[in-house]
Amino acid sequence: MMENKKTYTRRSFIQSSVLAGGGLMLSFSWFSEAKAVEKGLSSNLTGEWNQLNGYIQITTDNIVKIMCPNPEFGQNVMTSLPMIAAEELDVDWKDVKVEMASHDNVKFGNQFTGGSNSMRAYWKPLRNAGASARQMLIEAAAQAWNVPAAEITTKAGILSHSSGKVAKYGEMAAKAATIAVPKEVKLKSPKDFSIVRNSKKNTEGVKIVTGKPLFGMDYSMEGMQIAMVQHPPAFGMKLKSFDASAALKMPGIKDVFSIKIFEEGSDRGAFETRTFNELVAIVGKSTWEVMNARKVLKVDWEVAPERKEFMMVRGNKVEEITPSGLESTDLHFEKMREWAKKSPKVLRKDGDPEAAFKNAAVVIERTYNAPFLAHNCMEPINFFAHVETDKALFVGPLQAPNFAEATLAARFGLPTDKIEILMTRMGGGFGRRAYHHYMVEAGLISQKAKTPIKLIYSREDDMTYGIYRPMYTATYRAALDQNKNLIGFHVTGGGIPENPIHANRFPAGAVDNYLADGWEIPSNITIGAFRAPRSNFNAAAEQSFLDEVAEAMGKDPIQLRLDLLKKAKERPVGSNNDYDPGRYIGVLELLKEKSGWGRSENAGKKRGVAAYFCHASYAGHVVDMVLRDGQPYVEKVISAVDCGVVVNPDAATNMVQGAVVDGIGQSFYGALTHKNGVAEQNNFHNYRMIRANEAPQKIEVHFVQNDIDPTGLGEPPFPPVFGAVANALFQTTGQRYYNQPFVSDQGQPKS
For residue 107, which of 42, 166, 174 has the smallest C-alpha distance? Predict the structure, then answer.
C-alpha cells in the first residue's frame, strides 16, 4: 500500500452527511481553494446534496453513485474518471452508477475538459476520495463489531472480519457518515489495481446507441423558442443597419433584434472571443421557420475600424490590437514571406549557432506552411438559456464552464450562485467549445425576448465564425560537418496571428548549437485552441525535416532520433528542456519493435515514422502507405504511446485511433481560405473531411507499461500523425511535401 501523507481538513477535503434515505455521501470539495470551500460550506450542510458537483454516494442497498465532474465529448471520462474513485473505494464496478455533474466551481474546481488534462487533474483527488470513503466504512464496521479497524478487509463492496462478520458497504454507510474524515489514507499499489487498467464499457453506451437524449440539441423546456443569429459575411466587417419587416411577416417568427455580445471597453476574459460583437437575432417557434425568416432579412454591413482591447494573459493585463481591413489568403502568404525576412524574437539560444552554420560543410533548409483549420464538430453549435431578472439557467455542450460562469456573471450582472450551468454530452469539442460566446448570445436573446431560448448555429454559421487553428509557417535549418555530424539546428517560425514555436522541445537539448525564434502577424480572423495547439503544426514540420536530415546523414530515421535523445538524456544541452528523453526513447523503441521497423520482411513497405511530445505524453506512429487507384492511401498504422498509467485501455485505444484518423484527414485535406474577409469554405461540400472508406484498414495501438501517474492522451497522438504521413508520402511518391494539406490544392501558397 502507498501512504498518502498530504493532510486535508474536513472542510477542504471531504464532507459527509447522512442522506434522508440513509447512506454516505462524499463531496469532492478539495479541488477548490480553502476559501472557496468555506464559501460553499453552508449550502453543503442544508442537505441539498442533489446539487453537489462531485460526490460519492453509497445507498443502503449497496449502490454507489459517482458524479463525473468533467464534460464529456467522446474521450470517455464519464467512465474512466469514476473508475479511479471506484478502484480505491474497492467496490464491484457493476454496482457503480455514474451521472454527469452540473457546474459548481466551489465544490469541484473549474471542471475544464481540454488540454488533455482530465486524467492528470483528477487522478490523485479521486483516489483520495475513494480511499477515504473506504477507510470511513472500515472504521464504522470496527465500531459496530467492536474489533480493531486494522483487522477488517474489503473486497468488491464487502467488509469482512476474521471472526466471520460480514457486511455490505450500504449497511455501514449511515454509521460511516458520522466518522471523522481521515487525515491520512493508504492508497493501493498499482500492482493491486483491479478496476484501473482493466477495460470497462462506456457507461453511456446504451443511451448513445438507443438515441436517448444526451446532447444539447436534445434539451427542451416548455415555452422554449428557437433562435439563430446573423453575423457579418466577412471578417473585418460589422453591423450597420437591418430591415426585419419581411422576416417578421414569416410564419412562426416572434421577434428580430440586434444584440451586442460585450459592452464596449470591457476587458476580455479567458476564452472570450469578439469575432463579431454585434449580431442580428431571429426568434421563432421552430428551426425551419427561423432559418427561412433569416433568408429574407435585409442587413447592411460596413468595414470595422481597428480595435484595441485588454485581456488577461497569465495574470498580466495585455493590450491586443485587431487590425481593420478585409484579409485574403494570398495576402497572408505574402505577409508571411515578408515577415520571415525580418529580425525575429529570439526564444532560445544554445552555444554558437551562427558559427556552426558558417562553418558547416552542408546546410539543409526547408520551409513548411499550413492553413487555417475549422473545428467542424459534428454536433452543431447550440445552447439553451433562460435568463430571468434574478437568476439564469444555461444548458448545453461546453468545455470550460468555470471561465464561462465568470463571463456570464459579468455580462448579466448576476452573482455566480444565481447562475446554473448544466453540461450535456458534446458531439465533438477539440477546443471549439471552450469559447463560450454562443452561451452569452443565447442568454442575451433570452433576456431580450423574455423567454427560454435554444440558440442553434447552422454548419455555415460555425465554419465562417472563426476561432480557427492559426495559419503557420516555419523554416528549419540543419548544419552538418564534413563527417555528416549534426552541429547546428535552427527553427524560425511565425503565424497569423500567433507563432507556432515550442522553443524548449526536442531537438532542443540534443544539439550543442541551437536557435529558436519567432514572429507574429496581427489579424482580425480569430483563432482558438485546436486539438494540440501549435503542436499539430510543429510535429508535421519538425518530423518531416528530421527525416531529410537523417537522409543527408545516411542514418535510419528512427536511429537518428534515438541518437539525439540519448545525448539529451546523458549530456543535455541547456536546462529548460520540457521533455523526458527516457520516456521519448521508450516510445520509439516500442514503436520500432511493434512495427518491425528495419526488418527484412517489411523491406518492400512504403513507411513513414514520426514521434512527438506534448501535454506531458509521448506518442509515435509508423504509417504504411500504398497507392490505391493512383491516390495515396494509409493502409495501416502502428502507434506507440506513453501516457503513464492507462486507466481504461479500451477507451485509451479508441482515443488514439480517433486521433490517427483525424490526423490523416486533416493532413490530406484540411484547409480554410479567405478572400476579402470571406471564408471560401462554409460546409462539407467544399471543406473536405476524411471519409469512412479512406480510414486505415488497421490501427494497432501499444502503450508503454509503467506506473507513472496518468498524463495527457486526447491530444498527444494527433500531432505526429502529420509528420508520419508526410514521410510516408515521400517513400510512396518520391516527392517531399512541405505545404498542408498534402493531397488537396486548397490553402497552398502561390509560387
Answer: 42
Q: How many CB atoms lie within 10 A of CB 413?
A: 7
CB 716 within 8 Å of CB 619: yes
Give the DSSP per-residue string, 429-471. -TTGGG--HHHHHHHHHHHHHTS-EEEE--HHHHHTT--BBPE
Eight-class DSSP state of 399: S
- Asked if 444 and 261 count as a contact pair (C-beta separation under 8 A), the reply is yes
Helix pair angle (535-553, 719-733), 10° resolution: 40
- Confidence band (pLDDT; 50, 70, 90) for 25? low
Q: How confident is the model at residue 751 (pLDDT cuts 50, 70, 90)?
A: low
Q: How far apart are CA 591 and CA 624, in angstroms?
A: 13
Q: Where does the pLDDT of residue 27 fall: very low under 50, low under 70, confident under 90, or very high at 90 and above?
A: low
Mean pLDDT of 389-418: 96
Which secondary structure element, helix H or strand E, spans residue 547, and what is its range? helix 535-553
- Round to whole Å and give the CA distance between 472 and 486: 26
What's the rounded Cα separation, in Å, for the pair 441 and 261?
Answer: 6
pLDDT at 242: 98
| Least confident span in 207-221, 262-276, 365-379, 522-536 | 262-276
Q: What is the distance, to the nearest Å, from the Cα of residue 437 to the centroid of all Cα atoms in its chain?
A: 18
Quick check: 41 pLDDT over 70? Answer: no
Asked if 476 and 455 touch (Cβ cutoff 8 Å), the reply is: no
C-alpha–C-alpha distance, residues 207 and 185, integer Å: 36
- 158-182 tens-digit pLDDT: 999 999 999 999 999 888 878 888 8
Kindly give the pairing relationship between strand 185-187 and strand 2-4.
antiparallel
Identify the DSSP state of 377: -
Give the span between the Cα atoms of 270 and 301, in whole angstroms. 28
Length of the chain equals 751
**CA dist 667 to 369, 536, 549, 671, 701, Å?**
12, 10, 21, 9, 20
Biggest alpha carbon–alpha carbon distance for the chain = 85
